[in-house]
Amino acid sequence: MLKKTKLYSILNFKCPRCHKGEFLECRNVYNLKKAGNLREKCDCCDLKYSREPGFYFGAMFVSYALGVALFVTTWVATTVLYPQYSAELLLGIIIALIITLGPYLYALSKIIWANLFFHYEGTTPKKNR
Ligand SMILES: [Zn+2]
Asked: Tens digit of pLDDT for each residue in 45-86?
């Protein structure tokens, strides 16, 4: 159902242009030796994932937004569900959550950033673009 949408590419870490090739070097985002490392180009459509040196510096803004969204969502949900928790405990929970989800948010921010600049063009492999 989500095929051909940016959400499909983002949630499955697939190439933003063909939705077939892998985006990350390693599918396991918790492999810290390769965390967030991208492939140079798509195996299927030959899309170069990095347009220019430093292209993914902008992904830090996406990462920041994801972190803030996670913080606010967790704070509000925990405050509503467990009003007896102190602010220090809430902060501890959120810090633990952000550290745990850090590698995933890092990889997610890169694929979101790539999807802002590359658009779906079909699954037919096209070379020399
Ligand atoms: Zn591709």
From this structure: 999 999 999 999 999 999 999 999 999 999 999 999 999 999
d(CA 40, CA 50): 7
What separation in Å is there between the alpha carbon of 17 and the centre of ligand 1? 5
Closest CA relative to residue 50, chosen from 128, 127, 118, 104: 118
Which residue in 15, 33, 81 sits closest to 24, CA to CA?
15
- CA gap 88, 24 in Å, rounded: 36
Q: Calculate how far, in angstroms, residue 91's C-alpha sits from the geometric centre of ligand 1.
A: 40
CA–centroid distance, residue 54 to ligand 1 (Å):
21
Q: How far is the CA of 106 from the centre of ligand 1 (A)?
A: 21
